[in-house]
Every structure is written in structure tokens, then in C-alpha cells.
Amino acid sequence: MKLFLRNVSGEPFCNSKEGIEMTDIEEKRDIKSLTLPQLQEQVKQFSEPAYRAKQLYEWMHRKLAADYEEMTNLPKAFREKCREHFTYTALTAVKVQESRIDGTKKFLFALPDGNLVESVWMRYKHGNSVCISSQAGCRMGCRFCASTLNGWERNLLPSEMLDQIYAITRLTGERVSNVVVMGTGEPLDNYENLLRFLLLLTDENGLHISQRNVTVSTCGIVPGIRRLAEERLQITLALSLHAATDEKRRSLMPIAEKYSLDELMDACTYYFEKTGRRITFEYSLADGVNDTKEDAEELTALIKPLNCHVNLIPINPVKERNFRQSDRRAVDGFKNKLEKNGINVTIRREMGRDIDGACGQLRRSHMIKQAE
User: Fold this and answer.
1) Cα(270)–Cα(264) distance, rounded to whole angstroms?
2) How far apart are CA 48 and CA 28, in angstroms?
3) Cβ(345)–Cβ(318) under 8 Å?
4) Where are the beta strands (DSSP E) in 8-115?
5) DSSP class of residue 211?
6) CA distance 244 to 225
7) Over the range 58-80, which residues count as b (16 or more CB within 10 Å of their CB) and which as e?
């Protein structure tokens, strides 16, 4: 038996790793990935009062219930019916690391099928931010990233992306005000599920996080950027750039073999034209690789025509890679060079440096220990 969810445009999600996933043996739908209208239709089929859908939705997405048993104002028979027909995603924290430097917390969550994903909770003056993963593993192969070292397992469901935020909120007892889809995985490689996640996250009946407080990061999948532009969302798009020439970018990011910088810049311009939202360029600085004055000049020439912001990131060393972090003098010099050329730029504050800070490190170290 095959079951299909509908995406936000009404088309069916494919029964594969490209959309909401169903295994050959799993016939239950994932209830936390349903929109309120879909839930209302399901409740109607159960011959239950229409208001039950709203109650159930609020328990899942506003009260952040970890189980049907917490939904105390719903009749037991209705809860059992839901349990019978739907799976209920509630992630389990396998490991939590807390930085002694700044209080940043890194969470390793177990998915129902045994896969692992990691998320990061960061406290800022303007509110709490959570960085989530969009895939179990990653197939993009960026040279300086630990997320790709064990390859790609599968896409995450909308509910599995959401529950990273929900579980962290439950565990910390503090509200999340900003969400960054910048953890393990390439969000635009999981496009349909990402879109559903954004719809649920920003829905006024749920957490209702403002679209302007959500950032989605991509390594540069040009068709995905253009497709996302057509959605006309008010999220921030962050592009992992890391080099200002095609040759250097190809040495760092395999995706650059497929899409040139000219194609990327055209897609970024298109995104701004459609959404009015400026692009953020993520630029990780590695000693002697991409941190010279010449690199800064080439970056200026590439992005100056765009309405953009540059986020400089002192690279987080990964032991399996040979990249070293640029020293403070090089980072400041790079920043000053960009500013003198009229580029809006900031240096990302390093968070959780003492707790497997780089993307994928905690997941990989845990997997290695499990295999020993």
C-alpha cells in the first residue's frame, strides 16, 4: 500500500527520498507533517467534531506535546485512533554538550529509524537561535565540512526538522525566536520537505516564528534558488560561497563543478528581484587558502553589484581535513578590505568552540564510538 501526502501546491510528494518518505513497510502517515487543513480533513473522515483538528494541531505545534498522552483535553478514544493511523515524531536526545565558554548547547538526536542528526542552541541578546539539520548526512562533499564525511543517508521529514526545535524548547524551557537551517545536509536537496517545514514553522496556529527570523543556507543549487525565489517567502537566503573564482571554488565545493559563479550570481539577483530580501554570503576563512588581500578584491568584484551582506566565518577545524583557521589579523584585514570597498560585512561570533563546534562533528564522533 502506498500513501501520499500533498505538498503546499497540491501536488503529491513522491514516495521516495526526494519528498516525504514512506518505507515499504510503513503505511502510517506522519501526523506532525500535516497542515491544519489536511488535519481537518482527516478529523472529518474520523467523524469527529471539526474543532478536534485545531486542538490536536495546537498540542503538536504550540504546546509541543511529546506524545498523545499529554493531550489531556482530547478523548482517549480519539487519541487511540490517531495513534492507530499516524506516526508521531518526537525526537530523543542521545547526547547534549554545553559550552563552558558561552552556554551554547549542541544536541544529538535519534530519529525513529536509528539515524542521528545534530542541532545547536545559541543564546544571543536578541533572543535564542537554533540551527537545525535538514538531512541525515550530506552528499554535497564540501572539503572543509564534517557533515559529508559519512555520506548521505536520507532526507528529513518536515516533522523531524520541526521537532529539533520543539525538543530543544522542551529541554531548555526557553522560547526559540530565530531558526537557521544550516546544520547537516543541503536544504535545497530536500526541497519539498523544507517548504512544508517552513509553512508549519511560520503558521500562526503553531510557533508562528516570523519568516524574517528564518535563514536557509545552501551550497549553491541554482535551480533550487530560483524555485525558492518563486515562493516569494520573506526568509533570508544564505549562500555558502567560500571562494570568489570558479577555479578556487571547485577545489573546495564539488557543487561548483555543476554551477558556475556567473550562474550563481544570476540566481541570487533573481532571488532579490522576486523577494526584496538581500542575500547573505557565507565565507569561511581558511589560512592560506582564501584569506588573502587578492581574495578580498576578487570577492568585492564578484558581489559588489548585488544587494548583499557578507558573513565571515573563521573556519572550524575538522581533524579529518587539513584546513587551518585564519588568524585574527588575517580575518580583520579581510573584513577591513571589504568594508573599504563598500561591502556590508560582519565576522560571525564563534559559538561553542569547545564542544565539537563544526557541523557534523558530534554526529561523526558518536558514530565512530558506536562502531568501535
Assistant:
1) 10
2) 19
3) no
4) 29-30, 86-87, 92-98, 105-110
5) G
6) 19
7) bbbbeebbbebeebeebeeebbe
**Cell numbers for 364:** 561523526
**pTM, rounded to two decimals:** 0.88
Amino acid letter, residue 348 = R
User: Which amino acid is residue 300, in one-letter code?
Assistant: T
**pLDDT tens-place string over residues 15-57:** 344 455 444 334 789 999 999 999 999 999 999 999 999 999 9
Instruction: List the catalytic residue out of 48, 118, 160, 192.
Output: 118
Task: Kindly report, residue by residue over 307-332, the tens digit of the pLDDT.
Answer: 999 999 988 776 566 788 999 999 99
> In which element (H, E) is residue 191 found?
helix 191-201
Residue 73 C-beta-side C-alpha neighbours within 13 Å = 11
Choose, from 131, 142, 219, 359, the residue flagged as catalytic.
359
| Number of C-beta neighbours around residue 38 at 10 A | 16
Neighbours of 145 (CB within 10 A): 24
CA distance 364 to 73: 42
Annotation marks residue 118 as catalytic: yes
Among 219, 68, 205, which Cα is nearest to 142's?
219
| Residues contacting residue 323 through CB under 8 Å, at least 6 positions apart | 143, 144, 286, 287, 289, 315, 317
Tell me the C-alpha distance between 63 and 30, whole Å: 18
Between CA 369 and CA 372, with CA 370 as vertex, the angle to 5 degrees is 65
Low-confidence ranges of the chain (pLDDT < 70): 1-26, 318-321, 351-372
Nearest to 318 by CA among 347, 295, 288, 284: 284
Question: Active-site residue 359, yes or no?
Answer: yes
Residues paired with residue 155 on neighbouring β-strands, in sequence order: 135
Cα 338 → chain centroid: 28
If DSSP codes are grouped into helix, strand and coil, which group holds residue 103?
coil
Cα 353 to its chain centre, rounded Å, is 20
Angstrom distance (rounded) from CA 35 to CA 204: 12
